[in-house]
């Protein structure tokens, strides 16, 4: 007779999870504000956690939302580290950053990332998962372990804040001469 501790969820193998979800994790980390130069390392950090904890995955949420939760924590740590390093470098250099250091990204992507940086972590996670990753509010609620109404509240607030920030950006650009290269 099977024990009650056995799960009905299928067992996941690390190699399969890595192969199937690498792009999702990388993309999520990028959208969560991990700098381009740190994305590969941050992705590996996520999968190191997955390797240690995969057997403990209880399938109360989808695998993707579980991975996103891990990615959120790794991204938070990376952003803090990057912020501290940047402050140290700026204190040393006291020179403005070159505008060309983000040539790989389009203006719209850079703007979105800058606007997402202004959101608090909860709103940012909900916005990224629903609007950019196409997950449902129910999936996100299960993955983040919060009430679905909280998800809708955070999503509305994130949309409102992003819209206001984008409007302000456009007003500033118009006042600066209307030269936009987006």
Description:
The chain is mostly helical. It has two domains: 12-97, RNA polymerase sigma factor, region 2, helix turn helix motif (Rna Polymerase Sigma Factor, Chain: A); 104-182, Orthogonal Bundle (Arc Repressor Mutant, subunit A). It contains seven helices and no strands. The longest helix has 31 residues, at 63-93. Residues 1-9 and 95-104 have low confidence and may be disordered.
Count of spatially separate domains: 2
Number of DSSP helical runs = 7
State the separation between the terminal residues, measured CA to CA. 63 Å
Please identify the structural class as seen in this structure. mainly alpha
Order of helices and strands: HHHHHHH
Mean pLDDT: 81
What structural keywords apply?
single chain; 182 residues; mainly alpha; Rna Polymerase Sigma Factor, Chain: A; Arc Repressor Mutant, subunit A; 0% strand; disordered N terminus
Write the layout of secondary structure elements.
Layout: H1 14-31, H2 39-53, H3 63-93, H4 107-117, H5 121-132, H6 137-144, H7 148-175
């Amino acid at each position: 007779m099977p024990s009650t501790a056995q799960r009905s969820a299928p067992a996941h193998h690390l190699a399969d999870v890595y192969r199937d979800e690498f792009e999702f994790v990388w993309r999520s980390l990028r959208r969560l504000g991990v700098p381009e130069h740190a994305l590969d390392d941050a992705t590996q950090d996520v999968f190191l956690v997955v390797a240690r904890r995969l057997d403990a995955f209880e399938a109360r949420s989808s695998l993707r939302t579980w991975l996103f939760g891990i990615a959120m924590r790794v991204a938070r740590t990376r952003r803090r580290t990057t912020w501290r390093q940047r402050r140290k470098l700026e204190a040393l250099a006291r020179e403005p950053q070159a505008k060309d250091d983000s040539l790989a990204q389009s203006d719209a992507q850079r703007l979105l990332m800058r606007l997402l940086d202004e959101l608090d972590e909860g709103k940012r996670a909900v916005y990224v998962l629903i609007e950019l990753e196409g997950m449902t509010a129910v999936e996100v609620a299960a993955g983040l372990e919060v009430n679905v109404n909280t998800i809708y509240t955070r999503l509305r607030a994130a949309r409102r804040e992003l819209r206001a920030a984008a409007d302000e950006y456009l007003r500033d650009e118009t006042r600066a001469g209307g030269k936009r290269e987006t």
